[in-house]
Fold these 2 entries.
Entry 1:
Amino acid sequence: MEIRYFDNAATTRVKKEVLEEMLPYFGEKYGNPSSLYSIGRASKKAIEEARKRVASLINCKPEEIYFTGCGSESDNTIIKGIAYRNYKKGKHIITSKIEHPAVLHTCQALEKQGYEITYLKVNKDGFINTEELRNSIRNDTILISIMFANNEIGTIQPVEMISKIAKMYNIVFHTDAVQACGNVPIDVRRLGIDALSLSGHKLYAPKGIGALYVKSNIEFEKIMDGGHQEKNKRAGTENVAGIVGLGKACELANLHLKEHMQHLKGLRDYFILQVRQKIEDAVLNGSVENRLPGNVNFSFSGVDGEALLLNLDAKGICASAGSACTSGSSAPSHVLASIGLSDELARSSLRVTFGEDNTKEDVDYLVENLYEIVQKLRK
Ligand SMILES: *Cc1c(COP(=O)(O)O)cnc(C)c1O
């Protein structure tokens, strides 16, 4: 059976051009970038080329990019790195209730070490309240970490406003942009972002490679000890092939961002319209206006989300209930709970996230099957 993949927020397929650019670094170009002979220097050069490409996607300087093992590592590195650097100045951090576990659990780990965390609530569309943010700032606040766009409901936060507030009080502003990078334009200079996390496998590069941008004047402690790689901030021989792949994916994302967004938005809005026309009692979760171009999240009252997924899977359809990172646990999504959904509605939700390979015909197939399965499960 043909697989129809609608779970691009969980991971994406590596692009052909990305894989092709990576392959030599598993073969003849296997030198260690720290070595001085020619194949070592070639690896080093490839890393620096990739760094420029990643920097160019978000408009920072290449030397402000650190390669990491994944988005989660980027989040850990900056949040713990800022916390450990500034503990004498203060131990208070502000984040939101709807962050990815990579941020939430990092903050919880810091709480055990004596840090204090404020978790901002969100409204029914998933937005933080910037007035509440302002009121939460204290003399000992050292970091504000608010995600750019949410992985479950697609809501895009008022990043520019958040960054203005952070600037006003001279507090470092980090944003987890793992879902946003490559799907919406991001200019860290214009937006005034101090630090940003991104991940390869969410933008058509492989799993196991991530990047962290940190503005050049911001100091942070390293959390990994060892060699001097990545300006002494991330020990470990570089994942050269992964880095090359991430660089290529960022270059392509930059080049095709407009068309990519239009393509995803077209599919998203068509799908939302079809569901609303054909299926009763379908509630769209998240913001209608400020939403990731490829994200849809519906609750179908009276339908068990897990049964829905299994039935869709039987038709070759890959989608998600909430987030891949929380599946396997029986607790309903913390994001859906935070926007005010009852446990029951949260458990009846379906996340569909489109990617570059999806077509309108895929959406028709999805809607047709979704309609039948929802009817069946409601009986
Ligand atoms: C996927 C994701 C992460 C984690 O990225 P990994 O590379 O899988 O560690 C972090 N934040 C958000 C918003 C994500 O969607």
Entry 2:
Amino acid sequence: MAYWNVQLAATLAERLAAVRARIQAAAERARRDPAGITLLAVTKVFPAAAIGEAYALGLREFGENYVQEFAVKAPQVRDLAGARYHLIGHLQSNKSGLAAELFDAIQTVDSPKLAHRLESAGRKLEVMLEVKLSGETAKSGADPAALPELIAAVRECSHLTLAGLMTMPPWSDDPEAARPHFRRLRELAERHGLSGLSMGMSHDLETAIEEGATCVRVGTALFGARRRE
Ligand SMILES: *Cc1c(COP(=O)(O)O)cnc(C)c1O
């Protein structure tokens, strides 16, 4: 094992314990069962070995942002039984076939066209709808007003299981800044009868859990700073 890996293994265990403790504490404050909150380990930019180390520590749900990048790592993590991979980055329709082959869940469906493309790949997929809550600052995601049409489109797709909504608020180092966005996402999910809420990252997972997150997407707090994006 390379020196780099030994170091990662040592610190990853500690960081994972710290993240789990944060989730636990936030869930207790919100009077929620922590078992209802999935920790999605975001491994973008990190090598496949990072997925292996996290798997060895008990993590099973992994998030990746780029189809191309995961296409390179996927053959190296094929042996990890029970591991599930979620696409959490924007998906262009021309990569939907490859994405459907590589991932178990696509959290960033934001148009009926993309839903139909994924459906035509013919593989069972869990999907979440990415919602744009911050107007012009968000690059991707569906407008809340477009949700009824999008939900109907996904429900017509026999290979797709609709798990809920996902959002990525504008970046702020103040976790409170994200709270209104998280609350809005929960209200939208309730209105449309959806139970899954993917929201909250390393710096604001407590706020997200207080507002009802069922999946927190954590990269930096587990794996350290990324060298690029
Ligand atoms: C990178 C990323 C994350 C993880 O962010 P951290 O701040 O490193 O925890 C979560 N969600 C999405 C959509 C991301 O792109």
